[in-house]
Amino acid sequence: MVKLMQGGAYLLNGREIIADTPEAQQALRSRTGKDITREEASKQTICYGILESHNTSGDMDKLKIRFDKLTSHDITFVGIIQTARASGLERFPMPYVLTNCHNSLCAVGGTINEDDHMFGLTCAKKYGGVYVPPHQAVIHQYAREMLSGGGQMILGSDSHTRYGALGTMAVGEGGPELVKQLLNQTYDIGRPQVVGVYLTGEPVKGVGPQDVALAIIGAVFGNGYVKNKVMEFVGPGVASLSADFRIGIDVMTTETTCLSSIWETDEEIENFYEIHGRKGDYRKLAPGEVAYYDGMIQVDLSKVRPMIAMPFHPSNTYTIEELNANLMDILEETEKRALVSLGGAKAADGSPLEFHLKDKVKNGKFMVEQGIIAGCAGGGFENICAAADILKGSSIGSDSFTLSVYPASMPVYMELVKNGCAATILETGAVMKTAFCGPCFGAGDTPANNAFSIRHSTRNFPNREGSKLQNGQISSVALMDARSIAATAANKGVLTPATDFDGEIGKYKYHFDSKIYANRVFDSKGVADPDVEIQLGPNIKDWPQMGALPENLLLQVVSEIHDPVTTTDELIPSGETSSYRSNPLGLAEFTLSRKDPEYVGRAKAIQKAEKARMAGGHPCQELPILKELMGVIKGQYPEANHSNTGFGSTIFAVKPGDGSAREQAASCQKVLGGWANIANEYATKRYRSNLINWGMLPFLIEEGELPFQNLDYLFFPGIRKAVEEKAETIAAYRVDKDGLKAFTLRLGELTDEERQIILKGCLINYNRVG
């Protein structure tokens, strides 16, 4: 089904794979009649050509990228624009689309969400952007329909910014990277490696894009095969897939931890652009005669079967047939994994939370309580049409099982109404809802306690479906394709692969109704109106003052996380907290609330000392233990004092930052006085970038080395000088009454600009005007 080659490979004429072995050059010479170096061949990937055309540095090993377009949604664009405004923003220098698909529900939190929407509309007018109102489209569907373009690059403040199937290299990053683009700065990164994804065959009936995506994720996530690399989809199997099918695979590449994706394009993609009235945006893309890839994933589409990603990660994959055949064993293994993911969580009353799956087996069948087809992954036209065909003439029943379907945009919804698929779905007892990303991050459709939900969405991290550990609630999500969700719904909640469906799954022609957007979306056409007054709601707050990096640091470890991976959902929860993302101090109160409820109080306690220092006072009066610790430090570093030493917090996590691009996973720590993270590695580039852009030190420590524990104090002498002078190792000490215990850390590679951002204290300070 999925095979990973060890080492690199050459691709000849887009169709023949030649492993990078000592015999490779001879094989290439015999087929092409010439010698081809690895470096020359690496320039023949689709990825290289796009990066080269967007690089402004003149050095393809140290890229400085300017993107063509930007896109954000309503839990990121307020913070981005507020940061850019503080840095002197006058107009958007490139097309910038503000969608409203995350904080669309305005039923809780008073005026908070709609205030953010009005902020977005007035900013689109003032600075020359595009504003997509709530319920019109999810961020990525609008970008596919209206923003993508062959050979272009798009930067989005959402991790699932992926439009590679349409010939657009797209990157999901934290908000500060968009701020840089708005300020005419660049996205700086070393040239990424490129991994080929070579597709052959064609999917069997009942297999959908989520099945292919999960098969790939299961094969590459754990071993880091594509981490921070670009996935380039090639091979004869590409032609067997519709545009919607390719899009459905492509959007899930985020869950592999790759940097971006790109596909070879053909008449199918040209037709997509023509349907959407943008045929001129199509560009045929293909690798050159001989292209070199740093790795190669081979996928035989004909062997992929309906998949399920069990809680609590998209890489926890099985075929549904395998699960049903080994039901109790796999469920027991999943329950054991849950103990790690939940970290021995307890409810507010101290009672342990228990996660159960085996009790869902009734008469040898696994019973599911909820199905969801939604968002940028599941809400596509073909997914919903296929689900309608499978559901036709059936009923989801009148018991506990429910099914909700969210088309990804109003144009998709309109076509489902016109072709009758919406009626077919509604007749079963299922519910059709408007374009909304909520089911992906826990806003809406939260299951009952201990319920099991199957979703064609993007992620299934703990509590991402909306339950709250701190309130004694636990439910869980498994990821599946819309087709198998429909088959399960038709079977009234009995887990069923779509390959068991005997009927026909038709091919429906799509007609894009552009009038929907023309009638409702505000498009400035790039013309800014500086006279427009920005509408600010009471929850929209400026970022608090942040100081520059001092000469020395004394930090307390205020949380220690030993899970194999820590997600951004665990660093700052999604769901109901989203309404506070325009309020840095309000949101910070939720930091690590699901993982370590003591974190906020501990971080605030030492932050008081730093606030006193910045105000010219004495930190030891706020936290008396600091007097004793500084006395110990002065024994070895007599020049250290409360004027040149900053005080704050840090956390240790084995591998933090998997998942969302949300900058708040870092900024909330900074707002609470965080100066650093210490990790064995960072799960994604975007989380590390978020730390840097918020002036936090992304320390690395070797696995197995942990010369400190939670609540210990760590001293970093000469840290400012070390950053300035690009020191390879960072001297650190654990401080207690008995003295200083030395150890070393690393910062990893930092660009000159990133060093300056850290030295200034954050990106806002780096760019601040006046």
Count the E strands. 34
Total separate domains: 4
Fraction of residues in β-strands: 15-25%
Structural class: alpha/beta
Average pLDDT confidence is 93
Chain oligomer state:
single chain
Q: What is the CATH top level name of the largest domain? A: Alpha Beta
What is the fold named in CATH at topology level of the largest domain?
A: Aconitase, domain 4
Q: Residue ranges: pLDDT <50 for 5 or more in a row?
A: none
Tally of helical segments? 29
Under the CATH scheme, the architecture of the largest domain is Alpha-Beta Barrel
Shape category = globular
> How large, in whole angstroms, is the Cα Rg?
26 Å
Which percent range fits the helix content? 25-40%
- Major beta sheet, strand line-up: 31-30-28-26-32-33-34
User: CATH homologous superfamily name of the largest domain?
Assistant: Aconitase, domain 4
First-to-last CA distance: 59 Å
Q: Let me know the largest β-sheet.
A: 7 strands, mixed
Structure explained in plain terms:
The strands form nine sheets. The chain has a seven-stranded mixed β-sheet with strand order 31-30-28-26-32-33-34. Strands 9-8-5-6-7-25 form a six-stranded mixed β-sheet, with helices on both faces. The protein has a five-stranded mixed β-sheet with strand order 1-15-11-12-13, covered by helices on one side. It is of the alpha/beta class and about 775 residues long. The longest helix has 16 residues, at about 110-125. It folds into four domains: about 1-65 and about 190-305, Aconitase, Domain 2; about 65-190, Aconitase, domain 3; about 305-515, Aconitase, domain 3 (2-Layer Sandwich); about 550-765, Aconitase, domain 4, CATH 3.20.19. The mean pLDDT is about 95. The radius of gyration is 26 Å and the shape is globular. It has 29 helices and 34 strands. Helix 4 packs across helix 7 and helix 14 (about 380-390) crosses helix 16. Helix content is about 30%, strand content about 20%.
